[in-house]
Design brief:
The structure holds 2 protein chains of 2 kinds. By secondary structure, chain A is mainly alpha-helical. Chain A has 12 helices and no strands. Chain A has one domain: MetI-like fold. Chain B is mainly α. Chain B is globular and about 70 Å long. Chain B starts with 20 loop residues before the first helix and ends with a helix.
């Protein structure tokens, strides 16, 4: 009886998850009347705006990851090594982006950093890109921080630091050549999640008026029939790829550790 | 920056706090200051003086309806997400399903909980939208969904779509909690003569309760702040708070900038309550997972 109910719950759930995936895949192939074809995909890939917005978001994702690493790794390291009393404050701050909706945050940005403010970031395209990158960094902050902090827990930060210092290493050497390589798996896992978040993000980019992938998808969805499901298939593949890579680096590291 | 050996004990020089200065500056500029700007703006009139008028002005029929729809949407999608996610997680952990099911389910949940926003809306439009796969198949066998009053671009359509990221999130959070239920507790209950139902009612559920309620609060906040899926699905028509705020930021549709702040302040207030519940309950539930 339990087993029957268990199978029922699982199959019901799987149907719910599979049907939309099948639906979007099937719909994306129906552009040509009466037969299945990849016309919708061809149309998407022919569109220069697709490539422009996609590479724009990709660059921003890269910048976000770099920014996140520079921000999170030294902070998490320092808190663990010297400032355990700052932990509640830092953890609280890293949880804030889950509490404050992105739309509220970007609303604050627009009002704080508009052209008539003390720091007119939205006045230029580059300034707005910078602001958007900062916005994405806050969105990714909870995941990046947790990932890196968990990674730091598995290594003996104090001993490694003292060993490096007694060999004459400065702080930058310690962070770049001792700590970072040791938490690389955690950093990569946070980075892939950041990539998935940034590539699909809509609200911040739309409200800051930047040509990112999310607003492009939305605009296409409002005007076309067959390209949107093709885009959804592509986006799903990207998400799957990011999560797969995340699992891969984690598994790889377990393997390494088992060997050691 | 402080060089030399690590000081232990004693009075710490404030210079050590410099180590988290970059983080503090970032957090101040891009998290705390923007939020404060919204909160203070909600209590200011056009000249910048203190007022509660903006909050009173929220009390119009359209804004009340928007909040109510948003809260209902979050409640329904969170409760259904919790219930279905719990059922699937329990099926995998206790249901005697083959071990091979578990790992793919967790992987898929990780993907699906991140597959939100615009593409998710496309997937559902392609499936149960007016010309979607299921809609057409059902029409071919004589069932017209529209005639039964079903419309994807509506409240219930949004609930069904939100479940696609709510259920996986529940599964991801609740499976570790279910794993934390020790076999000994069940055996102890059975030795004392408890039935399966009694074990669940008097042992397992009270232990799981903080986890479940906490996750519920998280799912609630998750749905409440979501913009992209709803916007891509229904466009600007559906009257929910995030979409109203989106339109307000783009073009001051309320005709009063400070009312926009108040609208956003209301959102913060609700998500803060939901997340506080989540964090408090998670701390409580982690006691049992050690």
């Amino acid at each position: 009886m339990t087993r029957f109910l268990a199978w029922f719950a699982l199959i019901f759930g799987c149907l719910y998850f599979l049907l939309p995936l099948v639906g979007m895949a099937e719909f994306s192939l129906k552009m040509r009347r009466g037969e299945y074809s990849f016309d919708a995909y061809a149309r998407v890939f022919e569109d220069p705006t697709f490539w422009a917005t996609f590479s724009y978001s990709l660059v921003l994702a890269g910048a976000t990851i770099v920014m996140g690493v520079f921000l999170v790794v030294p902070t998490a390291y320092w808190v663990r090594l010297k400032l355990p009393q700052a932990r509640p404050f830092v953890e609280f701050v890293t949880l804030l982006p889950l509490v404050i909706p992105a739309i509220v945050l970007v609303f604050g940005y627009i009002r704080l950093y508009n052209t008539s403010s003390w720091l007119p970031l939205t006045g230029s395209a580059l300034g707005t890109d910078f602001l958007l990158t900062m916005g994405y960094t806050t969105l990714a902050l909870p995941y990046m921080y947790r990932s890196v902090d968990t990674g730091l827990r598995t290594i003996d930060v104090g001993t490694l630091t003292e060993a490096a210092q007694s060999l004459g290493a400065g702080w930058i050497t310690i962070l770049g050549r001792i700590i970072l390589p040791n938490v690389m798996v955690a950093v990569l896992s946070g980075a892939f999640l950041t990539l998935a978040i940034v590539l699909g993000e809509f609200t911040m980019a739309a409200l800051l008026n930047r040509p990112a992938f999310g607003p492009y998808m939305q605009l296409l969805g409002a005007n076309r029939a067959y390209e949107p499901p093709a885009l959804a298939v592509i986006a799903f593949a990207i998400t799957w790829g990011c999560m797969g890579l995340m699992q891969l680096v984690t598994r790889f590291s377990k393997h390494e550790r088992a060997k050691a | 920056m402080a060089k030399g050996p690590i000081r232990r004990g004693g009075r710490r020089l404030p210079v050590e706090w410099l180590g988290i200065l970059p983080f503090a500056i970032f957090a101040f500029l891009f998290l705390i200051l923007p939020t404060l700007r919204i909160v203070t703006g909600a209590f200011q009139d056009v000249e910048g003086g203190f007022t509660l008028q903006n909050l009173y002005d929220l009390n119009t029929e359209s804004i009340r309806a928007a909040y109510w729809t948003s809260i209902k949407l979050s409640l329904y999608s969170a409760s259904l997400g919790c219930a279905i996610g719990f059922a699937m997680a329990a099926a995998v952990v206790f249901g005697g399903l083959p071990k091979a099911v578990r790992s793919p389910l967790l992987t898929f949940s990780g993907v699906a909980s991140n597959f939100a926003g615009v593409p998710l809306a496309f997937a559902f439009i392609a499936t149960i939208g007016p010309a979607g796969l299921i809609t057409m198949e059902l029409r071919d066998v004589g069932i017209n969904l529209r005639a039964y009053g079903f419309n994807l671009l509506s409240f219930w359509g949004l609930v069904i779509t939100y479940l696609f990221f709510q259920i996986p999130l529940m599964i991801l959070i609740i499976i570790p909690a279910l794993d934390g239920l020790k076999r000994e507790w069940r055996e102890a209950a059975e030795v004392l003569g408890a039935t399966g139902l009694q074990y669940w009612r008097m042992v397992a559920l009270p232990i799981l309760f903080p986890s479940i309620l906490g996750t519920f609060a998280l799912l609630f906040a998750n749905a409440f702040g979501a913009v992209a899926t709803a916007f891509a699905l229904t466009g600007p028509q559906l009257n929910i708070v995030p979409i109203k705020l989106f339109a307000q930021i783009r073009g001051d549709v309320l005709g009063n900038p400070n009312l926009g702040y108040a609208l956003a302040f209301g959102m913060i207030a609700i998500t803060v309550v939901a997340n506080t519940v989540y964090i408090v309950l998670r701390v409580r539930s982690e006691r049992w997972l050690k």
